[in-house]
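Fig. S4 source data, part A: sequence.
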Amino acid sequence: MSGDEGLGARWDEAYEKGSPPWDIGRPQPAFRRLADAGELIEPVLDSGCGTGEHTLMLAERGFEVVGVDISSAAIERARAKARIRGLDPQLVVGDALALERLGRRFGSVIDSGMFHTLEDGSRGAYAQSLAAVLEPGGRVYLLCFSEHTPGIHGPRRVTQEEIRSAFADGWTVEAIEPDLFDVRPEFGDDAPHAWLATIRRAGGAAEEGTFEPEVEMARAPETEPRAAPAPEPVPASEPVAGPEPVADPEPEPEPEPAAVEPAPEPAPASSRPTIVVVGSPTALGGHFDGMDRGPAALRDAGLLERLRSMPGLTNETFANRGDAPIERGWAPDDDPRMKNRQRIIDYLPALASHVEGALRAGGGDGAPPRLLLHGGDCTSHAAAMAGLKRLSPGARFAIAWFDAHGDFNTPETTPSGNVWGMPFAMLCGRGDAGLVAACDGPTVREEDAALLGGQVLDEQESRNLAASPVAHFGAGMLAGEAGLAALDGWARTVGARTDGLYVAFDLDAIDASEGMAVAMPEPGGLSVDTAIAALRILASTNRVVGFGPTATMPRPELDFGRHVEIVARLAEAALA
């Protein structure tokens, strides 16, 4: 095995063993901010793309983007994700130190965790490789571990001076700003410190006309492979380093990258999406993590593909708008009243803006598309309602809150301090003023709200619900014809006086015997058939503006494929 092949094999091994710490299932917040701010110029190169989260994020936004990584295992995962999300960006197994073999230029480059895997002797070669494909005046946005990250675990730390030294010739380092890396929880409790460098290629460093016609980076070994650095795989954010053996390009021009399907990006008015999909990767509301990875797990398991095949949704057009930006999906906090209060206050407005923007981008001259929100914990629903209200400030919305738990606690009544037990109250305007304000509460009048399936309630929470105008349909009640008839009466009454209904569906409302992969399964809940019957009543009597299945948390002992199938059936009942 050549040195080049060995390097690729080592990175393959890191992916084949599972999900390495840098493979977090969503883009780094730094690159979301850059995309949101319009800083990235097409076409974009994602250097060291790993399993493709940044490439796919940009493809979903309509960018022309190419992802390159030395690991064939990572690229195969990226391509699988792209198929599931209805995207077709160019994803290439290739050598980041020989990017000229791509045979094309780019307007900008992003590097998430690639640079800090390189040995000292390879950094200059990497800068030259980037210069060969970046347009004069184009920018590289480089995110790497900084020396301020404590300990020795993970990749080597990089100083500002090392960045400036590597890009000393033919480049201008315009900014190096402190940032954070989002990594998987097993890396540690604290987000690693990072540098976000903005580096501009000097004008005139390369002349037009020096490139061959566009060709795909070859995958066969070179006849004389050059020596390659061989760092061991270390936790980083989607790293890639060192040379991948490549062959000289064939003379035939490569076709342009395939166009993105209409579903995942803004489309002409005649084919505007009717359902916009948003992920909320948060578990900040409670005392353990896992729900923050739910949206990525559903995407990777093919939920969107399954939804498109559901008979009741065949006429719908889906647009996947990705996850809302979040600095950390979960953090430990022993506050007995409001765990992660400030983090949640910071996150909910960002999710509300993401929901509003996603729906606004999908709308034409008529009604905006409907929302399909993947969570994440149930605080996500409070922000979803805020986003819907921001889009339609004058609208009066109702809410049907499916949950085994009441989520109607306040900091004064909570026995745990888990904020994910408070969002129903928050969006009704109850509870901590900061949390209520973060979700623009109240966004719903209590007489337009109902709890369905609630059966595990704290004593004071139960008293508060009983004393409020909120309707309550227990799991046992809905299992009979009389209970469904009562729900039909409530739904018709509310539907006649409101402009739309949002359905918040914590999947633990489904009885634990159904085998749902959720954070807190409870016995005595709704059967799948009963839940579908209730959703159909709501959909037939109201204009459903959104459906939010939350609390997905994969468990190795459960069949996640069955979980995905049930979520698809529930979504079909709510949105068909």
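Fig. S4 source data, part B ends here. The first strand starts at residue 44 and ends at 47.
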